[in-house]
Every structure is written in C-alpha cells, then in structure tokens.
Amino acid sequence: MVNNIQKVGFIGLGKMGNPIAKNILNSGFDLTVHNRTPGKMKSLLDAGANGATSPREAARGVDVVITCLMDDQTELDSTLGEDGLLAGLEPGGIHIGTATISPSCAATLAEIHRTNGSHYVAAPLFGRPDAAAAGTLLTYVAGDEKVIKACKNLFEAYSRSHIYMGDDPKKVNSIKLTMNFILVCLIELFSQTYTFAEKSGIEPEFTQELIMTVLQHPVLKEYATRLRLQEFEPAAFKLSAGYKDVELMLQASSDVRAPLIFASAIREKFLTALANGMAEKDWSAIYEIARTNAGLT
Amino acid sequence: MVNNIQKVGFIGLGKMGNPIAKNILNSGFDLTVHNRTPGKMKSLLDAGANGATSPREAARGVDVVITCLMDDQTELDSTLGEDGLLAGLEPGGIHIGTATISPSCAATLAEIHRTNGSHYVAAPLFGRPDAAAAGTLLTYVAGDEKVIKACKNLFEAYSRSHIYMGDDPKKVNSIKLTMNFILVCLIELFSQTYTFAEKSGIEPEFTQELIMTVLQHPVLKEYATRLRLQEFEPAAFKLSAGYKDVELMLQASSDVRAPLIFASAIREKFLTALANGMAEKDWSAIYEIARTNAGLT
Amino acid sequence: MVNNIQKVGFIGLGKMGNPIAKNILNSGFDLTVHNRTPGKMKSLLDAGANGATSPREAARGVDVVITCLMDDQTELDSTLGEDGLLAGLEPGGIHIGTATISPSCAATLAEIHRTNGSHYVAAPLFGRPDAAAAGTLLTYVAGDEKVIKACKNLFEAYSRSHIYMGDDPKKVNSIKLTMNFILVCLIELFSQTYTFAEKSGIEPEFTQELIMTVLQHPVLKEYATRLRLQEFEPAAFKLSAGYKDVELMLQASSDVRAPLIFASAIREKFLTALANGMAEKDWSAIYEIARTNAGLT
Amino acid sequence: MVNNIQKVGFIGLGKMGNPIAKNILNSGFDLTVHNRTPGKMKSLLDAGANGATSPREAARGVDVVITCLMDDQTELDSTLGEDGLLAGLEPGGIHIGTATISPSCAATLAEIHRTNGSHYVAAPLFGRPDAAAAGTLLTYVAGDEKVIKACKNLFEAYSRSHIYMGDDPKKVNSIKLTMNFILVCLIELFSQTYTFAEKSGIEPEFTQELIMTVLQHPVLKEYATRLRLQEFEPAAFKLSAGYKDVELMLQASSDVRAPLIFASAIREKFLTALANGMAEKDWSAIYEIARTNAGLT
Lengths: 297, 297, 297, 297
Known about the structure:
4 copies of one chain form a homotetramer.
Chain A: E1 7-11, H1 17-26, E2 30-34, H2 42-46, E3 50-51, H3 55-59, E4 64-67, H4 72-79, H5 85-88, E5 94-97, H6 103-116, E6 119-122, E7 125-126, H7 129-134, E8 137-141, H8 145-150, H9 152-158, E9 159-164, H10 169-199, H11 204-215, H12 219-229, H13 239-255, H14 261-275, H15 287-293
Parallel strand pairs in A: 1-2, 1-4, 2-3, 4-5, 5-6, 8-9
Antiparallel strand pairs in A: 7-8
C-alpha cells in the first residue's frame, strides 16, 4: 500500500461509474478503465484514460482498483478467476467496492482480500447519477482505517463527503440497504396514499401537500426518539385508539375500493399488541412486536 | 342559524375535548358542557361553564353544539335517540363533529341533519392534546360555507387555523384518515428499520439520524411529484435494479433474522410490475400497480 | 313455545331461501313467506304458501319465523322496528337465523329476544343452493336445547342433519366463519399454485392432480393432530430445513415472475421462529407464532 | 452409460440418505458411500458398502452416483472442484440428484453434465424418512429417457414408484417446490384456524374435525376444476358475497384478538377484483387476480 495514491483502475462504466470515473480523471489521477461492453469506454479514453481489456488488466500496476458494478455476482466475477482483478492486483493493493451488494458478499470480498494480502474497502454510493456527475455523492466507508486515509484524495475526487464507519464492510452495506429500504417503503407509501386519496375524491395536488407536510412534521422526530428510547408510557395516543383508526382506514379503503396493503400489515401488529395486553401503551409501541419477532427483548 | 355565535354546547371532555372546551370558554363563549362520566366536567364547571346531563340538554338553546367523541358509534349515540343532541337542537342549529370517524358515518350525520333542518359541519382535529391545550390545532372543515363562516370565531378559539375544503363532510374525514395512515405507516417503518439495523450491528443513534436524513431529503419531493404526474420514463433508477435491491434487503433480513414485512409486501408489487413488462421504467412506477388494483387506469 | 311446530314464517327468498322454503312447505308445514322484492314470492304462493307484506306480518301468529337474509344489517332490519318480526312474534315465539352473520350480531339478536321473551336459535347453513334444493344441507344449531328439540321436524324438513352445539349462538357463527375461512384460503391457495405451476411449465391438469393428491394425503391428518397436541419435538422435518424450502419457493417465484403471496407471509413466520430459537423443532411449530400473536401461551 | 447398472456411488447419508442407501444395498447393488461426517457411514460399511473419502472417490468407477444433500450449495460443492464427483465420474456416467434444490440449480447441474459428457437426472424425493425406510417414496424423474430407463431397477430399489416427467430437470424441482408450497400453506392455514377457533371458544378436537371435513369435501375438486377451466360464470357464490364473508372473518378476528393473516391477504385480492368490476362472478374468480399479477392473460 502506498500513501500517495496515483494510479487508479476503474471497472464498470454504467450510469454511475461513468461520471465518477470522469471526476477521478479530472482530479489528476492516472486512470485505467475497463467495461464489459467496450463501447462505453470511449468517452473516457478520449479524455485521457487508459483502456484495459479485463478486470485483471485494469488492476495491474495500480494502487487502487474501484468496482462500480451491478450486483453480488458481477462483483465476484470481476474479482475472481483468471481474468479477475485479484489476478492483477499487487500485494498490498486496494479494492474499493462501490456497488450495492449484500452485506454477506461484502464480508466474503473482505475475506478474499485478507487471504490474498490485499485490502478491501466497502464504499457504497449514496446518490443518483446527477449527484455522481456533480461530484456530490455521499459515501460511507468501512475497512482498514490507514488504507481509507490513504485514499482520502480519491474519495474527495468523486464524493462531497466520505464518512468512516469502522472496519466492518458488512456494516456499510447494511446501512445502504437500510436507506434504500426506507426509500422504497416511502415510494410504496406514496403510491397507496395517492391511490386511496384519489378514490376518496381528494385532488392529487392536495395529497402531495399532505404527504410533504407529514414528512416534515416535527412529531416524526419525537416518534423516532420515542422508539429509540423505547418509551411507550405515558401514551400520547393509546394503542387501542390507534387500532380504531387503523380499522377506520381499512373500512374506508373498502368503501372506495382501494386496497391499503400497509394498513393490513399494520393491523396485524396492532391486533398482536392488543392480544398481548398493550392497549394502554402509546400506539408507537407496535415497535415492540417488531423487536419480539426479531428475537430482541 | 345565527351569524353571531354566542351559545355553544360541548359534548365529550376527554384528552382532546377538555382543553378545547377550556379554550372556547376562555374566548368568551357561553358554554354548556356534557360528559358521560360527570366527574370530568368539574374543572370546566369551576371555570364558569354550565353543566348538562345529556347531549340533548347540551344542545338545547345553543347556536352550535360540538362533539368530541371516540368513534362512529358514540357520535351516532350522542346524536340520535331520546337523549340525543338532535332532540335538543333548534331548527337551523349547527353540529360540529370533531372526532375521527369514518367518511361514511360523516355522510350519514350530514344526511340526518339535512332531514332535520339543522347543519352538520365535519371538522376533524389535526394535532395532539398538547396542541389542543396550546390552541394550535389545525382543522379542515367541510359543510355549508355560510355556516362555516358564521363559526369563524369559534374555530379560532381552539385552532391555529381552519381550512375550508368544500361542502362534502366525507372528504375531510378521508383527509384525516389519509394523514393518520401516513403517520402509522411511518411508525411501523421506523419499527422495522430500527429492528433490522440493530440486528445488523448499527447503533440506534445512527439509525435515527439515517431515518431523519431520508425523510428530509429533497429527493422525496421529486418522487412525490413524479408519482403525481405519473412520469416513469426515463428511469432515474430502473425497476429491475430496484427489484434487485429489494431482494438484497430480504436476503439481509434473512441473514440477521429480522423480518422486514414492508419489503415482503413491496417485493410482490415489483414482481407484478416485472411480470407485466415494466422492467425499464423508473422503480417508482410500482405506483401503477396500486392504481390498477384500485381500478384506476 | 309450542312442542308441535305447525305454523312457520319465512323471510328472505333468495338463492338459498327459496329452495329451503319449498322443502318446508313440501313437508306439510303451514308456511307464510315474505320477501322484500315481492315477485320472488310467486312460486311459493303458487305452491300453497301464504304471503306477507312485512317481516312483522310473516311472524304474526306463527310458532317459528326463519330468516334467510344477506348480512348483519338486513337481519337486524328485519328483526327490529315497526315492521320487524319482533313486533309480530308472540311471547315464547322462536326466531331461527340462518344467515352467515358476525358472531357479535348473533349475540345481539339472542339478547334482543331474551329481553323480548322470545327465543333466538342460530342455525347457519352449510351447503350451497344445490344442497338446499336437495334438502341435504348441514346445520349447526345453538340456543335453548328444548327449543331446538321442538324444532326437530322443521330442521329435518330442509337439512340432511342438524347438530346441537350448545346454547351460545356466537359459537355456531364462528364455526361457519371458520369453515368459510378454510375454504377461501384453499381457493386462494389453488390460485397461487396454478399460476406458479403454469409459469414453471407444468400443465394445469397435472397441477390439479397434484393439489388433490396433497389434500387427500394422510400426512395432513398427522399435521392436524400434531398441531392440536402441540407436539413439535422430535422434528420430522426441521424448521430450519423448512425455511430453506420456503426461500427456494420464493426464489423460484422470482425466477418465473409469479408472486406467491402466501409464501411471503409464511416466510415471516419462519424468520420469527428462527429468531426465537426454534430451528430444531418440527416446521409445523410455526403454529406457536400464531398462538403467541393471539396472546395464547 | 451401461444398460445394466451394478455399481452405485451414494453421497449424503442424512435422515433420508441413510435408509435409501440401505435399500439400494439390500437390493444387491455394489454400493460405495461417502458422507462429510465419516461416522455416519459406519452402519452402511458394516452392512457391506464400500467407503469413499470424497465425492470424487464415490463417483470413481461407478455407473451411477446419487446425491442426497441439503441444498443448492452442497449439491454444487459435491459436484464441482478437485474433489467433486465430476472429477471421478467416467464419460457417460450418471448423476441422480435427489435433493430439494432450486429449479435454476437443477438446470445448471444438467448443463454442467452435458458439457462434461455425463448425464444428470433430477429425481427429488416425495416422502419423509419413514417412507424412505419403508422404500415407499414417490419419485418424479426428469432427464434423458434412455438413461432413466437404464436406472429402473435402481429407482425401484428405494421408491414405491417413479414417474417420468420429460427431459427438463427444472420441471420436477418446480413440482417438488409446488407440493411443499401447498403443504406449508396448509400447515400455516391449520395454525391460523386452530388459533382463531380456540379464541372463539371452539374446542380443538372439533376444529380438527372441521378442518378434515373441509379438506375431504367434494366441493374442493369442483373448485380446482373451475379454476383450471377458468369458468367463473354463472356464480355459485358471488364474489361480492364472498367479500362480505371475508370482512366478517376479519371483524371476528378483531373481536377475539387473533390475527388471520391469510384473510388479510385475501381481502386485498377481493378488493382488487371488486375495483375491477368482478362483483357478479363466482368468488373463485380471485384466481384472475393472481394470473394478472403474474402477467398471464
């Protein structure tokens, strides 16, 4: 491992990879790129990058090789095998993985590099292609702290900020999945809300305002804190009263013929809570059901 | 109906009703209160309110009677029958219903008053007991516009603002349920998020920060707009890629033994979308599945 | 109450009611019928029944009045009010309710009759219109045992057999709902099975054979017994192995793009069981999760 | 490939593998066994089997090698690599895979053998350890028909019957998963039924009888046929009436505090059907929703 990163390999020039690689090149690094479909390399070669015909070649002689691929399988395929980056990387070399992969695959990659005498840094990307182009991505990074410090300039070349989260690469991938989980749940929540509201005669513009009002309401921080501290007594709104409202939602969803699938799932949690003596607690105490189901006490 | 509301009846002195009634009294109205459990009337009687032994008596001789009760059944019970408020209310009298009731019950109440020659105003409360005490509740109101204008001072006595939403009382109750739906979904979302994160080794303080960061992220407004306009092409993040992430969430939830019930429900929507040729659209196009299931084109 | 039932009122001549009334008439009872849409009475009047213009009139002077209506609301409407059967029924009269109604509505009707000095017998119907026509319905009955014995001939006029289930009318309606629950779950199970199988290249004829083979397999009785006795050790098939199979089903459902919604719901129960230390028990021990969620120990 | 199978290798001596291997040995085959934990080989070695230290050795010089392992990963691990069975198997050799694996893994194994010049036969087991011991397992087999015919005596050594299902190994694994899907759904259905019934005051013995009565009722064959033929008109029981019953189940489940999670999932399908104009069809027409969601027309 060198302290002055100069030579960088980059594998995967998709919607995210392309603008990131460009920012790295523009920051003055000596960049070698590889993409399975060679045509996508052209704009970077034109801009001064070197081309490589395989992950192995992209990793040969560089200080750091970055992968920006699709999933577990493509990450593993690019790393292992005859043409994999591991076959090209020198002892002490660094592999920065930016894809959204499973925490267990991140752990596997870290283990492979440890055995190999090289370093794996998990650094999933937070942001979309426009943020990648603007260099305003957020990156949580995990791995050997010294290695990550050595890569400071490189991270700064394509991220607005990078935050060190310890040495466990599983963890930052779990964080990435957690964020995407929240996001996709919100999209589905919006979907159900717009649908139910439209069938109830509420104009979509008003519904959007309603959604944004709730999302920005200070009460959400109170609830997030209450759950974190597991403080459900005294109740601000009793679980039994909350259950009544959930049943009203379902009745209304039935009346207007618009399934509210999250309300159905939540109804089960309220019923479970009521069957287990929690009627007088705050309605946010349904958190306890999620904890019990995960074996937490 | 009078244009200068002076005499007000108030039925239901619970956690919300008590502070609201107090604010009305403090604003100079001539107030008569009733509560099924008489002991809860004491503090208001001490403060100068008149006491009534039944809803009918509370409605007798007043300009407006307000109900602040538990649910459909208690609203109907207080309105109808020998001792109901309808038996006491004079022709042209006004009934303001503040409870969270079903939209269909609100329609029934409006119809009952229409037949009776009196007025029903649906005015569900947005805010919790502390907002009621501070007089900072938000109220969406629906009913006869002239009637609502006549009640302006009364609404101002207990609400920070009241917003006229037309003459359909079902609608404001649908809005109330929509807001509560969003809220309870967020609570359950927080529950699953904290649980999954904790079992993945992420500290609750960090998880809370993550949750608040996503909720306040500008991308949510973009998604809410995209859905409202039903613009799913070109994709910022393809549905097929989003599906891959949903599967990763479920795999991780399996690895750490923490069910993510919303992710399971969402998985079904993604699979349905993929089975119906939507792989290249933006992942927020799962909205189309919710619409189809509700019979919207 | 008389011991020799002769005169019978019958309210509700729909798909079920019509053939039942005909069988009662054919058995020699003196029958008076009522239907909201009078046209549906014609074939019975032609066959010798008397016509009534209201539930009250149908109940006047008879020993027993039978209702065969749609739901809670129509049962209550036909019973109560100025034109309700209660207004016509003599002291000690009997009301046999055959509709599928909520257990709580059945309890309400029983209480109303008790107060009124008459008798309510809950007797929901098991069977479809063809069984009603053939007189081969099965009836579970609950109410006063002497009253039910007095109605023996009447039950025999339209049922293959009637089984006394004690004096609680809620119970037989719960049994009816339980049977319909099993039935509708099987229909949905068939739906998912045919869909998944077809998308996996399996011919529908073969799938039907497969379904019928499993339903008639002796192992199901073993499972039903195991659950009843709550004997989950030693395991015939470990919960951890069962979970693996559930994940394989979901993976295959993903591969062929056919959501298996029951498998998703079941996956959550297995994960909950595994998170709570049940990996070594028989996979049927997921029953314990259902019990816990219902507050049973 | 030989036409007279004599020498058999057997890998995986677990609960299923052990009795199967014993039956094969008892039928006079020359058997070589391998198990990862060597201790489990003892009883077979004592009975006259040869021992092998690796899958490769177990496959060396035999006509057929059978694997009876846990999952996709163990099947692949035993097949591939330096010590895998493929390294030992002679050209034209046969690999019979009996594990419950994913259809896609079965396809992969078939492809690997095709490339290798050997044969893969998918033959998942239907039955539990007691059936394995009694030699009464049922086996669906897929692969090259001539190969399967050559193995006739071998299949008969451990199965009551083996049924040829064509040459696609994915298909028989899909059939196995379909059967297990039906089975696990029934177990979960029993769980919900017993729980709801117990909380409704119904004795478990009676509930078991009820369950068995429905499962053996001829109406189920009618429904299975109706779905297969997609004949939903005329309705025997209208979808709108069926929906009413589903709502009654949910109301009762709420009253007794026992979540009926399948009823919640089914409610969504009924609502979707009603929102799309299917009220007058037979209630079994919810099958059309499952088909639509899977992209079938």
